[in-house]
């Protein structure tokens, strides 16, 4: 039998995935690139800082696509880059 925490974590993961997908769809209606909107939703719902590799893995997008959209989100002031001690990634 699965513990309640595991079940709750799975529900939260599914809800997050659905939110990211729907935010991406809304983004296209607002004239925003779908991937950019999905990255924005992913970062808004993350409990920790994410690097480009994390975004690539979570959304299954290319490095170039993730990097370009992250850079644009930073330029728009919607996300910010932070430095994590001991980590060289942005």
| Cα radius of gyration in angstroms | 14 Å
Tell me the number of helical segments per DSSP (H or I, 4 or more residues long): 4
Q: Overall pLDDT, averaged?
A: 91
Distance N terminus to C terminus? Answer: 40 Å
Question: What is the structural class?
Answer: mainly alpha
Number of strands: 0
Largest sheet: none
Percent helix? 55-70%
The helix-strand sequence is HHHH
Which regions are unreliable across 5 or more consecutive residues at pLDDT < 50?
none
Proportion of β residues?
Answer: under 5%
Shape: globular
What does this entry look like structurally?
- The protein is mostly helical and 90 residues long.
- The protein is 64% helix and 0% strand.
- The chain has 4 helices and no strands.
- It has helices spanning 4-29, 34-44, 52-59, 63-75.
- The longest helix is centred in the first third of the chain and has 26 residues, at 4-29.
- The mean pLDDT is 91.
Write the layout of secondary structure elements.
Layout: H1 4-29, H2 34-44, H3 52-59, H4 63-75
Question: What does this entry show, briefly?
Answer:
The protein has helices at residues 4-29, 34-44, 52-59, 63-75. The protein is an all-alpha fold and 90 residues long.
